[in-house]
Amino acid sequence: MQELEQAVNRSVRVIPQGEGRVTIEKDLSSEEMILNMGPQHPSTHGVLRLECKTDGEVVTEAEPYLGYLHRCFEKHAEVVDYPGIVPFVDRMDYLAAMNSEFAYCIAVEKLLDVEIPRRVEFMRVIVSELNRIASHLVAIGTYAIDLGAFTPFLFCFRDREHIMSLLEWASGARMLYNYIWIGGASFDFPPGFKERTAEFVNYFRPKALELQRLLTENEIFVKRTKGIGMMPPDVAVNYGWSGPMLRGSGVEWDLRKHDPYSIYPELDFKVCVPDGKHSDIGDSLSRHLVRAYEMVESLSMIEQCLDKMPDANGFDPRSAIAKRIRPKAGEVYGRAENPRGELGFYIVSDGKSTKPVRCKARSSCFVNLSAMKELSMGQLIPDLVAIIGSIDIVLGEVDR
Amino acid sequence: MEESQGTIGQSAVVEASRAAYAIIREKFADAVSEFDANPTMPFFEILDTSRWSEIALFMRDNASLRFTYMACLSGMDYPEDAKLGIVCNLESLGEHGHRIAVKVKCDRDGGAIPSVANVWKTADWHEREAFDMYGMLFTGHPDLRRILCPEDWEGYPLRKDYEVQENYHGIKVPY
Amino acid sequence: MGLLDAKISNHNVLVTSVDNVLNWARLSSLWPMGFGLACCAIEMMATNASNYDLERFGIFPRSSPRQSDLMIVAGTVTMKMAERVIRLYEQMPEPRYVLSMGSCSNCGGPYWKHGYHVLKGVDRIIPVDVYVPGCPPRPEALIGGLMKVQELIRMEQIGISRAEALKKLEEKSFDPGIVLEHQRKSQAVS
């Protein structure tokens, strides 16, 4: 028997059946196949190419190839003056345009001697949190549709339309706003905006609960995302992860709390970290849960801002904006908490020109995606789709 | 934010960075430059580039420093000195809370900087991007090739003297 | 419905031309390969979703080029992506239409001057039938562009080339302002 076992190949198993009989089982021979997912693919959230080395259905390695949406943001930032960079910043992470503008303006304002009016600070936070909800809605909706659930996608986009009409009312555009300017904002809130926003907050609270019952507690969704794409917290920090990705691995780190900017120190909110009861900490379901909880936290933040905001009384949000933005010589790394993580701007100014010498955008999705190779080892191809969806990438920010 | 509160907050940050710098200076003496205590981004420069990965490992693993999180690694072009360089923003996330920036420079033509991709995995793709945009080499990088531009792109786009190529695979590039 | 020359006799026989039936069939179920690249893709998704529902026009997005007859190029085309766009266009079976959505695919958009890696307009590599301006175009604008594609399909005939159909579309196109003006005047009179 032993000689028989040793004499055969590793992929063949010899199972003794008693009475001197054996069953010989032979695996189908398999070899590694290189499969391309993308750049045009319904579930890669944009033009991302994943080169997967697969052994059957199991992926041994999936390497992302980027650059299909490289739109030369950093080159434009060196030839366009400081206020003119704001529309380009919008178009990087187009789902969270207000948050991106906020991060950029904070970075430049560190080099300027400008006092932002208090009402503008509240306006900025309200639109940023509204945009955070909108961005998470897209993240959740597209994640659901990747996994085959069509209805949550429609529900999310229906609710997102309300936010987009609010932001269109304030800024003039549905998606790429150019609203938060260096030193202020472009327009004040129109009369009635505060009341409509409060109406929206009351409308959306039960909808978030509905989404939770429809999707988050759905057995199929949980089975497809629980335990998939595990990332331990220290490896996550070493990769440079931030935002919901890092909080999904259990690290309590939110720039709004731990490196606060604007009026966030005055707001009362908690950092959403999964408790491990519904999901394994560090898997895709945890990251999804962080986003779902964050939407509800943003609602309470908006309510607090609406209460504390000073009244208009003929206020001009452009009052603190200088005619020529000429920051003093120096360099700064300014950052803010985007819905996808930490968006940072490393800006070098020479003090004489109205254009930056260097403006590097440290994008959250670029860094989050770099861990894809490690996360994908040993997963099945459908699980790969679940992992990409949980990373919530926006290729405009990855490729800039 | 109150003006005085802002400056107090800022100088506390600078002092924390200075304390961290002091530990590095003690160990590596002349391999690092003096501390630049500017209020917006305190930094120091690595003068002996060959020791950069050693210093990086020390910064990450030393118990009082614990710079576990690399926020950003940006490439830079210094045309007046004919040098290229990188600027790293490091932070001790959730532990000591201090942060610091490090600058490393190299020559423009054929210059090389040791790679820190094995110290902070963030640096892997950031160094590839710096190589793509500026052209400096990173010695010891596991996979140094262009990441954003196509593999056969000519030139290094973010250099100050970059000229766009006329044609790429038969397609006209300028407007 | 657009069956212009239909006459129904008492035996439920419809008399029309083959071109009309084919064109009606094609325009009522335009299946786009939504080639969503950047920000315009999100507006395209929003147009497909509940508020501006595109399904009521028969437009159902397909992922594969082999099963689609319209390619909506939504977003910036970069040099790296350009070759893939050509390949996808060639994979589409005829009759195929191309709608360029947004400034970036029309002419390079905000990146036209300094964007070294941006293709200045997707019409440099594939023939475009309809351009929809905007950055990003509103969903209503996209629906207007799709209706223009439907009008183009109405102009098609067996035996004429696409260029001739486009020319017919231009000639037949009119400024709706003239019709409205006329209506207003006639209402004012009466």
Automatic annotation (TrEMBL), chain B:
Top-level taxonomic group: Bacteria
Annotated gene: nuoC
Compartment(s) where it occurs, according to its Swiss-Prot or TrEMBL record: Cell inner membrane
A single GO molecular function term of this UniProt record: quinone binding
HAMAP family reported in the protein's UniProt record: NDH1_NuoC (MF_01357)
Topology of this chain in the membrane: Peripheral membrane protein
GO CC field: plasma membrane
Coiled-coil regions, chain positions: none
Top EC class for this record: translocase
Span of domain NADH:ubiquinone oxidoreductase 30kDa subunit: 48-167
EC number: 7.1.1.-
Keywords: Cell inner membrane, Cell membrane, Membrane, NAD, Quinone, Translocase, Transport
Protein name: NADH-quinone oxidoreductase subunit C
Keyword presence, Membrane: yes
Catalytic activity as recorded in UniProt: a quinone + NADH + 5 H(+)(in) = a quinol + NAD(+) + 4 H(+)(out)
One Pfam family in the UniProt entry: Complex1_30kDa
Family of this protein: Belongs to the complex I 30 kDa subunit family.
Complexes and interactors: NDH-1 is composed of 14 different subunits. Subunits NuoB, C, D, E, F, and G constitute the peripheral sector of the complex.
Role noted for this protein: NDH-1 shuttles electrons from NADH, via FMN and iron-sulfur (Fe-S) centers, to quinones in the respiratory chain. The immediate electron acceptor for the enzyme in this species is believed to be a menaquinone. Couples the redox reaction to proton translocation (for every two electrons transferred, four hydrogen ions are translocated across the cytoplasmic membrane), and thus conserves the redox energy in a proton gradient.
Keyword Transport belongs to the record: yes
Species classification: Bacteria, Pseudomonadati, Chlorobiota, Chlorobiia, Chlorobiales
